[in-house]
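Structure representation.

___
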Amino acid sequence: ESLQAHLDVRGRHLMPIHNGTFDLALHAWTDPFERITALADKAGVPLVAPVMGERLDIRQPALSQQWWRAGAAPQRASAPTTRAAARISAPSNPA
C-alpha cells in the first residue's frame, strides 16, 4: 500500500515511516524494511530510510543505506525520568 500511494501521488523518493518503531508484530522488526526495499527496487523507486532520529533534508535526501542490516536495532523507550514525570506517575497517599 505504501508503494502504491507513492506511485499514485508521483513522489520523487519513497520514505516509509513507522517501520520498526515498535516491535509489536510476530515478524522480525526488519521485515517491513526488507519488503519495501524489494518492492521499491522492483518498481525503480528511490527509497529513503534514515536511521531513526536522523535528520533529513527533504530537498536532497540521501538514499537508503540499509542500516537495519547492520544490526542497528531501534532503542526501546525507557520510563520517564524527569521530576515532573515522577510527580505525575507517583501514587497519591490519601491520609
